[in-house]
Amino acid sequence: MPEHPLASRLLLVAAGICGALGVAAAARASHAADDNLGIAANFLLLHAPVLIGLSLMAWNRVAVAAAVVLLVGLVLFAGDLAARAMLGGPLFAMAAPVGGGGLIVGWVLVAAAGIWGWSRRVGSPD
Fold it and tell me: What is the C-alpha R_g of the chain?
């Protein structure tokens, strides 16, 4: 059982929301033929299962940090692309590049969670 059940549940909720928004954005993008919205949908759908996986690792603080960073990056990156498609303008200047950078950092943290998570699971100290 995870040490942080609330973190697990919140990450699972976030994964579900990302998945639902991804499907909705993909449907809208297919009807509107909008590349930005299609990219946002792809990113949402790609990261939803990652968040599910990280929700199962809530005992690992690095995994939780990775999930939070990925979520913030996803909101900024996909949100900016969706805003451009549906509202005609960005969320704010540099939202997509900052969000993309956050996604890269989040994935590096996923790798770090695997490294530190492995050593913790085999009995190494925190």
Answer: 16
